[in-house]
Amino acid sequence: MAKGLFVGLAGMDIIYYSDNYPNRNDKSAIDDYKTFTGGPAANEAITFSMLGGDSTLITSIEESPIGDVIKANLESYSVRVIDLSKGIDILPFISAIMVDSNGERSIWSGQRKFPESDFTLEDCDFDFCMCDCYMYPHSMKILRDLPDSVQICLDVDAYGDHVYDYLQLADMAILSSKVWSSIDQGLLKPDLKIAITDNDCPIRILDSETTYSVPVEKVEAIDTLGAGDIFHGAFAYYFYDQGRTLEDSIREASGIATLSVKYHGTREWYDHARP
Q1: Is 27 domain-assigned?
Q2: Helix, strand, coil % (nearest 5) of the chain?
Q3: Which domain holds residue 257?
Q4: 62 three-state secondary structure
Q5: Is residue 274 part of a domain?
Q6: Is 51 left (phi over 0), alpha (psi -120 to 50) or beta?
Q7: Beta-bridge mates of residue 249
Q8: In the predicted structure, residue 227 carries a pLDDT above the cut 70
Q9: Residue 275: what pLDDT?
Q10: What are residue 95's DSSP bridge partners?
Q11: pLDDT at residue 214 above 80?
Q12: Which run of H or of E encompasses 73?
């Protein structure tokens, strides 16, 4: 069993299923809503663990009643949690999300500046590290402290000032087509493996001098929330734990992500996954 280290955001997602935004200074009563532990790194760690991997998550949750719920939920999925903000009494990251009848989502993400931390990763007994490129500069320090034996895979969720700092440390990067369009390819390492996702369009893979695509099944989406995170966590499982080829791992992970959008939330897919 591969030991996976996940670095990045964990918080609480409050999801409302509705087509109607409330009018200004008005309320909208919605009886279809759910709550989940969310955040890219948290969803990736949970997915990896659900499929059979060994997950450790370094994140920032802090001490609060909501934080206690987040930690307990992560631990219920056998995710070990290292909290960079342990003992700090402030709210964790909380997102309010509206999902419409087409499965498309709008997200209000409550994020704040990361507290100072002198954390040093002492136990580096991991096979790979997946980082969502948040929690800078703490995440950058963790990646730089990893030994060369630990493969680094990035979930490049958004283009930002530090994206090339992360990419210089990575062995593998998964980016959306939107982020890829902003990347200066001349600044990338020649041996960096890249997967470019574009909703239900084929996934493009750049592996050394080889370029090819993996098709994505088109289905009727009920809820696209977290599908990218699930894809990343499933990729980590098939590539690092199961030892599949890059192409096969992308294909299997795509199948899991596609399955996830057919159901509400970020966990129900598992009940419908093949044995």
Answers
A1: no
A2: 30, 25, 45
A3: 3-19+33-114+123-267
A4: coil
A5: no
A6: alpha
A7: none
A8: yes
A9: 61
A10: 13, 109
A11: yes
A12: helix 65-76
